[in-house]
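Quarterly update from the structural biology core.
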Amino acid sequence: MEGTIKVLKAGFGFITAEGQSGDMFFHAKNLVGMEFDSLEEWMNVRYEVGEGNNGKEQALNVEVIQD
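Predicted structure, tokenized:
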């Protein structure tokens, strides 16, 4: 899936995707090929939807889409 980083907090954030209801949680440990500190709100990202440790749906294998 593809979306846009909407909010960044300390070590986690939320992605909004067109056509999806609600925002998708992601954790810094699920980033691919980048450090959390290099992210900015409104960056476009690609991710997979999976189950987190708490059993809830979250974004996994999150990577920035390079222009």
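The first strand starts at residue 2 and ends at 8.
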